[in-house]
Amino acid sequence: MTTTTQATRTTTSARVALALVVWLAGSMVAAIALLALQPRTGPDLEVLSLVMLAPAIGAAVAWPLIRGREPWATHPVSSPDLARSLVLAVAVVAAYFVVISVARGSAPTVPAQVGGVPVVLFVLLQALGALTEEIGFRGVLLHGLQRWLSRPLAAVITGVLFGLWHVQYYALPPLQLAAFVVGTTALTLTMAYVMTGSFWQRMASCTLIHLGANLALAFVGDDAVPMTTFAAAIVVGGLVAALLGYVRRP
Predict the structure, then answer these.
(1) pTM of the full predicted structure?
(2) Which tens digit of pLDDT belongs to each residue from 3-16?
């Protein structure tokens, strides 16, 4: 390896590390501000937790260090390839609903309203929240870590950090909190397997999976879903994606 090549790699690694630090700092500052803003002007927490927007705000702050640069600059895929990714995502979401429904002995039901707003608006706001979290975690962090790590290992680390980001669950019993982190790790591994294409094509698949998990929790049963059930559903969804991905290989 030439001195010039080594210097270029060192510079790139330093830039990626700086981008991740800027993203994290921006996300944390935004999260603190949004948590303070929620009770004053924000919607009902059941409809949209404003802190979900923080990872995308952090990404916007770090965007000058990210846009069009490795490891975030990925090539777009054709429409059929993207469609296959989205079909896999839909299959994963279907598995979430099936597992949670079986575990709770309750079929999914879609109410007319959630948190005082029409269910259509609820779904749209949930989609916004899922997208903004995906931009930060599976968009910026996961791809940034792949500068140094394999995709599966980067996905595990991203999934654990994504679970720990949800500080509202720290009050759960240890087993339930651990199950939640297992679930977020399995969620990220599933996304890493299903996603393909450009940044925004990958965000489409990841957001669909994330939104599906949130809606499965919201639309199956009347009370809170235990995190052990959530984790089981996410793991099964990942296995479904892996199985279908294997079957469709030539």
Answers:
(1) 0.93
(2) 666 666 777 899 99
